[in-house]
Amino acid sequence: MCRFLAYSGEPVFLSDLVCAPTHSLVHQSLHADEGKTETNGDGFGIGWYAERPEPGVYRDISPAWSDENLVNLCGQVRARTFFAHVRASTGTATARANCHPFVHGRHLFMHNGQIGGYHRIKRRLEAMIPDALYDNRRGSTDSEAIFLLALANGLEQDAVGAMARTLKIIRGLMDEAAICEPVRFTALLTDGETLTAYRWACDGRPPSLYYREGPGGIVVVSEPIDGCREGWQVVPKGATLRARHGTATLVEAPGLARAAA
Questions:
Q1: How far apart are CA 128 and CA 51, in angstroms?
Q2: Crossing angle, helix 142-152 and helix 159-176, to 10 degrees?
Q3: Among 141, 189, 146, 183, which Cα is nearest to 42's?
Q4: Which residues have a catalytic role annotated?
Q5: Listed residue (187, 202, 168) closest to 113, CA to CA
Q6: How far apart are CA 228 and CA 82, in angstroms?
């Protein structure tokens, strides 16, 4: 499983959260505590919003712990909202196109989890993505496929409902293929203004997700970046966290997500 971090609030340097803390995301790329795997070395990515409405993105296949460019960039870039992700592949290739976050217009998306038996429904799932969106498909991950199908289902207008509809469709494909493996979906979406964090799973075992509100903004992480849980809140299983202007609200998940918790 992957590890990620998101921030929204007063502009800060990316290095303050991505690189500097004791158990930073760069440290987690080699020594994760709560992930399925300790090492997350199949690439990394950052996406940030600064002066323009569309995000900047930098992704690469090298491990985050060994990339000097990542450290240097994070030390120079200051942003009001940003995503950072270190990848542990669940079966797809280690390639730049498969590194998170994924971008579409003003939106960034990143995911920690998996679609059980994805290879058995991949072709049918991709066939549901409209041509106009499928033209943006660059990689082969289930994460990118979820993002594009959710966009087709109205993600830009309804971040929670559209994602619930998308996962219901995916679960239907899995049922048809008699797949018993679970969908585990802990993910983050933003347009630079509103941050949405999902923690859903059809077996009640979604990957970990925490958040911390401070005077300057909100941080959402796979696991605490300071090495301790004090001061961090757990996003409940089956819930969705919405944050805007540094203030967070937990939202009861609809339909599939509620049943899957």
A1: 35
A2: 120
A3: 141
A4: 2
A5: 187
A6: 22
CATH 3.60.20.10 fits 3-260, yes or no: yes
Q: How far apart are CA 70 and CA 66, in angstroms?
A: 9
In the block, tokens 């966290």 appear at 241
Does the pTM exceed 0.70?
yes
Q: Which residues of the chain have pLDDT under 50?
A: 256, 258-261
**How high is the pLDDT of residue 255?**
55
**Which residues does residue 49 pair with via DSSP β-bridges, in sequence order?**
81
Which residues fall within 8 angstroms of residue 59, CB to CB, at 6 or more apart?
43, 44, 45, 46, 96, 99, 100, 101
13-33 burial: b if 16+ Cβ within 10 Å, else e: bbbebbbebebbbbbbbeebe
User: Percentage of residues in the chain with pLDDT exceeding 90?
Assistant: 76
CB 133 within 8 A of CB 152: yes
